[in-house]
Amino acid sequence: MEGVDHLAHERNKSEFDVDAMKIVWAGSPHAFVVSDRISKLVASDPGFRKDNRSTLSRKELFKNTLRKAAYAWKTIIDLHLSEEEAAKLRFYVDEPAFTDVHWGMFIPAIKGQGTEEQQQKWLPLAYKMQIIGCYAQTELGHGSNVQGLETTATFDPQTDEFIIHSPTLTSSKWWPGGLGKVATHAIAYALLIVGGREQGVHGFIVQLRSLEDHSPLPGMTVGDIGMKFGNGAYNAMDNGVLRFDHVRIPRNQMLMRCAQYTCLCMPSDAKLILEPCILIRVSQVTCEGKYKQSDVPRQLVYGAMLYVRQTIVADASCALSRAVCIATRYSAVRRQFGSQNGGPETQVIDYKTQQSRLFPLLASAYAFRFVGEWLKWLYADVTQRLQANDFSTLPEAHACTAGLKSLTTTATADGIEECRKLCGGHGYLCSSGLPELFAVYVPACTYEGENTVLLLQVRDMSCKVSHEDCFSAGVQQETSRYNSLYDSSRAFNAMSLRCSKSALLEAFEARAARMCVACAQNLSNFDNPEEGFAELSADLVEAAVAHCQLLVVSKFIEKLQQEIPGKGVKQQLEVLCNIYALFLLHKHQGDFLSTGCITPKHAALANDELRSLYSQVRPNAIALVDAFNYTDHYLGSILGCYDGNVYPKLYEAAWKDPLNESVVPDGYHQYIRPLLKQEIRTARL
Amino acid sequence: MEGVDHLAHERNKSEFDVDAMKIVWAGSPHAFVVSDRISKLVASDPGFRKDNRSTLSRKELFKNTLRKAAYAWKTIIDLHLSEEEAAKLRFYVDEPAFTDVHWGMFIPAIKGQGTEEQQQKWLPLAYKMQIIGCYAQTELGHGSNVQGLETTATFDPQTDEFIIHSPTLTSSKWWPGGLGKVATHAIAYALLIVGGREQGVHGFIVQLRSLEDHSPLPGMTVGDIGMKFGNGAYNAMDNGVLRFDHVRIPRNQMLMRCAQYTCLCMPSDAKLILEPCILIRVSQVTCEGKYKQSDVPRQLVYGAMLYVRQTIVADASCALSRAVCIATRYSAVRRQFGSQNGGPETQVIDYKTQQSRLFPLLASAYAFRFVGEWLKWLYADVTQRLQANDFSTLPEAHACTAGLKSLTTTATADGIEECRKLCGGHGYLCSSGLPELFAVYVPACTYEGENTVLLLQVRDMSCKVSHEDCFSAGVQQETSRYNSLYDSSRAFNAMSLRCSKSALLEAFEARAARMCVACAQNLSNFDNPEEGFAELSADLVEAAVAHCQLLVVSKFIEKLQQEIPGKGVKQQLEVLCNIYALFLLHKHQGDFLSTGCITPKHAALANDELRSLYSQVRPNAIALVDAFNYTDHYLGSILGCYDGNVYPKLYEAAWKDPLNESVVPDGYHQYIRPLLKQEIRTARL
């Protein structure tokens, strides 16, 4: 049966132009061509195979990752790949590695926070990988609260050096990727002490290992922090621990950026440290030991965070779409129950319970794709404005990006696990690809801003606005909107929910606004606003989620107002947009009902409409996941393979497990035979 | 700082008798004593250490599991442990192994479905482990739908044998634990064919491997199905694949139970096959090739499912409480933000966002414990009735057990992952114990009845009742209840929510009933009821969840009506009961609002009350998890260790990773140095 497409009948059912949808998903014809070429290049090169990953021991896995990273670099050089293509290649190699941090954190930090001189010295070395860098910020005792970092950098004017030191156990650097075994250099963050005075946390370029024999330099205790979640996943990465014992570095290795702003251009894989980078200072220390606050506006430091977080939102749609692609294809292959007169059983994708769990995730993948595109635009716009000294849109851009990072990563991690469950028992096998996808993805909920902490930033911003500005004006506005919503002419009905996105959008707007106003009202009951924020923080988080969901829905609707070529493409996206919005409305109907944005009758109608939308998606489901254009290599899943030939592949794969190398298992003579022969009391165990 | 209790100040805050709570948690003084003794015995024996589990390769892990299983058996024999104690010992060894299936599925199947003669022959061998059994039911192509199994057992009257055969690839047995490498025998399920007629799926005792050299017998192709989710987890188990090529077994190895009913007593670890056992027949074939339907009532087969599922509910509270214990202790140790004047930062357990995620899970652990106790009682009651030929309570018991299995396992799997996230970045380390706990636990959502399929069984039962019986009478009843709820005297207010559990319970009852009635009404719009059930199945699942949550809330309230000794113990449980109910009310407020069971005002008041309850739990949180009485060995988590001395232990553990065996990693010369030295183009990769 090799070569037969077991999903051909599904593909024949689709009602739209899949090739046109591939362009929409990729973002542009150019982006599609690059992705398509590079993903096929990686898939066809046995040097990048990954199907054996789950059975390797930690040391074998790590060594294999070192090999792949070197091989990828060789490929990039041999084929003269552009920066864009090189980044895509690393993406499709699809394995966490020290290179992610080198390209995604180390180089950008030097570009963003280094002086011209520092950039000229260090960047060429880094670009050629003559040095390999990591980003040493988080400590054993400190993640989210960067201001609490304990590592010290004390200026010694006599030698014109900084003394980097770890004064406590909890000040040990902990988590940085690439630090454990590979990196030769680090950007290390430490509390600057000049003339006995603490001057906040700053970044320092510190050499870690000899460039000759790779041994750690004097004063460094460095190693790997040990195993992490999942079989392969981040165990391919040497997340590290590092203690400094009075390590001296020249003064010119403190990042002292003071000139104009050019730092926000980073490669697309800037995402791999655990926990956020907030409130780092960029300042200067003179050789006389004078501390000068940088003239780089504080706001600019936010720019780097914006960049990284918007790439995380873009990645969310990739990860979720992978899981959805696997679960959708397997749901069309798998049959269970419903056989009539000995005929084939029912495809599980035809069950409404399966559809009601799977199709909202399919819709979410598309929704996150489009909100990611918008965030990319927003980032470019903010960058332009910053260069013209216009900081006006930065706070809102920061709040949106933080909120959407939190919303999309949480939904994606949960969605991957839901897709795994939708594949039944076989989803629990590593060969399904889903355990690995989950374990690799889920730290995104924690790194670059823990998701709940981020939502509190959204609410801080949006509710402080409500509290201070809107509380008088806003409540009135809100009230008028409230009334208008109940105009009989605007009342929802099944028809309006189907035909009028404006009615849906209004419901989401009203819900977000009213939850925010309710929070503001509750806050006003507290004499001390700080205490109020602390006490009501769980409610504020819910209001922030409502705000972020409104953003995703509204950007999806905006996307549909653009011209979208290709037969039936826009119609499919309309259906997915409605599913996304109505699914959220159903899931959070408590919010909508309690704030009076909809009535129970509307909720019931929305639910009926949702079922009818699922029926519209059904014939197009396989084509909608084909539009992601993922190779079987990238998917890394037998259950999700393009041709749907699942069972023979599962069966073959099983025999490759190391346990099957011998028919009688190692341990039989010592531990099984004594049981069977009743010789356990005298056995050596 | 060795020996210092870093959580002593937390323990001193508690307002209740922890030792008395330990008895409540254990279920009885006797249960506490046994658990306490055996868990300490396991914890103190280095033969059972498990801290090295995550770094072992598959083969090492498996061999180590074989050793532990043999060592556990030796311990059981040497110490003359009772059956109860032996089961506890296997529980506290805390590693999936072939013994789980031998004791939990193989032996019970023979007891339940075997004739007297079969029991006399096989049970003594199994009890002494002279044979090791597995339970071979699921196939590559069939899990939930047992009636669709493809393996055949054809009776050959000439030799008085059955011929067991796998006619297709998808008929390969797939998943059975212990099958891959260890078991000498299997209960294999196959479609019985007698005289050319198919007679449904039956069980057969099949020898798999030689008792002399462990090699597979002729006609058997058997092996391991490969790696599964997680580092250790079920990779310690040899879930297997098996193809039969016309394997002949004597006629007396078909399970042919026909006598009176005695099968429902099983050991407590009967839980470890993937996917459910439904609709297996127990019949007889005579030597002349005559098929006789068994006189064992079909209902009795349900009894075995009831048993296994009620143990799964009991296990849910164990797994969830472990995760909650870890997250609660670490939340009291971990400090982040909020330092004032250089003082210590705030314990993260003091943040309301942390409390609003953690404390409902703490309450859920207790709630599941008590509903598990009730199910155990229910099971015993049903068993007694069955022995007296009273089948009247079986359908409801079956629906309750199925629904609660689904509800508690889903909530527990999600809860473990939430606890992991509540531990921030460090929760992602294997040394936190949470990745392993999740990966070991999560298959419970799929095995022994996939959770969504189970909820459809609940709705089938409850809604068919609604549809047929209640639809006339029921709606009226419902309406009267509806009206009474709105009696001003019964209206909810903050006071009644706090003081009157009956008001809360009524809200849960009304919600469950009205959702069910709404489904019934919607079903009546379909001409064909089958089609209606299929189309509305997602709604029916939601109604089933509402029904199951009502059960958990009502059983918690019933528990509180009992006498509970110990200073402050009952008060703590009252608080937890209210948290559990109000948390659900908040989470599902859409249901409560749309069915008119509460008003938006009530929802807001419930939310305020919830915050105040969190404040009441806070000082008792550590003591409430101490009451689970888990040893550090069983918890298997540095973050959750009893003394709270987290950071030094994390730091020490890191150095034990195999990657730290050498300072310069294996692979440096081949793959890192060529990068740094710009020699990649000529490197051999």
UniProtKB/TrEMBL annotation, chains A, B:
<keyword id="KW-0443">Lipid metabolism</keyword>
<protein>
    <recommendedName>
        <fullName>Acyl-coenzyme A oxidase</fullName>
    </recommendedName>
</protein>
<keyword id="KW-0274">FAD</keyword>
<dbReference type="Pfam" id="PF01756">
    <property type="entry name" value="ACOX"/>
</dbReference>
<feature type="active site" description="Proton acceptor">
    <location>
        <position position="448"/>
    </location>
</feature>
<dbReference type="InterPro" id="IPR009100">
    <property type="entry name" value="AcylCoA_DH/oxidase_NM_dom_sf"/>
</dbReference>
<dbReference type="Pfam" id="PF22924">
    <property type="entry name" value="ACOX_C_alpha1"/>
</dbReference>
<dbReference type="InterPro" id="IPR046373">
    <property type="entry name" value="Acyl-CoA_Oxase/DH_mid-dom_sf"/>
</dbReference>
<keyword id="KW-0285">Flavoprotein</keyword>
<keyword id="KW-0576">Peroxisome</keyword>
<dbReference type="GO" id="GO:0005777">
    <property type="term" value="C:peroxisome"/>
</dbReference>
<dbReference type="InterPro" id="IPR055060">
    <property type="entry name" value="ACOX_C_alpha1"/>
</dbReference>
<dbReference type="InterPro" id="IPR037069">
    <property type="entry name" value="AcylCoA_DH/ox_N_sf"/>
</dbReference>
<dbReference type="GO" id="GO:0001676">
    <property type="term" value="P:long-chain fatty acid metabolic process"/>
</dbReference>
<feature type="binding site">
    <location>
        <position position="177"/>
    </location>
    <ligand>
        <name>FAD</name>
    </ligand>
</feature>
<dbReference type="InterPro" id="IPR012258">
    <property type="entry name" value="Acyl-CoA_oxidase"/>
</dbReference>
<feature type="binding site">
    <location>
        <position position="138"/>
    </location>
    <ligand>
        <name>FAD</name>
    </ligand>
</feature>
<dbReference type="InterPro" id="IPR002655">
    <property type="entry name" value="Acyl-CoA_oxidase_C"/>
</dbReference>
<dbReference type="GO" id="GO:0003997">
    <property type="term" value="F:acyl-CoA oxidase activity"/>
</dbReference>
<keyword id="KW-0560">Oxidoreductase</keyword>
<keyword id="KW-0276">Fatty acid metabolism</keyword>
<comment type="similarity">
    <text>Belongs to the acyl-CoA oxidase family.</text>
</comment>
<dbReference type="InterPro" id="IPR029320">
    <property type="entry name" value="Acyl-CoA_ox_N"/>
</dbReference>
<dbReference type="Pfam" id="PF14749">
    <property type="entry name" value="Acyl-CoA_ox_N"/>
</dbReference>
<feature type="domain" description="Acyl-CoA oxidase C-terminal">
    <location>
        <begin position="502"/>
        <end position="677"/>
    </location>
</feature>
<dbReference type="GO" id="GO:0071949">
    <property type="term" value="F:FAD binding"/>
</dbReference>
<dbReference type="GO" id="GO:0005504">
    <property type="term" value="F:fatty acid binding"/>
</dbReference>
<feature type="domain" description="Acyl-CoA oxidase C-alpha1">
    <location>
        <begin position="302"/>
        <end position="459"/>
    </location>
</feature>
<dbReference type="InterPro" id="IPR036250">
    <property type="entry name" value="AcylCo_DH-like_C"/>
</dbReference>
<feature type="domain" description="Acyl-coenzyme A oxidase N-terminal">
    <location>
        <begin position="17"/>
        <end position="132"/>
    </location>
</feature>
<dbReference type="GO" id="GO:0033540">
    <property type="term" value="P:fatty acid beta-oxidation using acyl-CoA oxidase"/>
</dbReference>
<dbReference type="GO" id="GO:0055088">
    <property type="term" value="P:lipid homeostasis"/>
</dbReference>
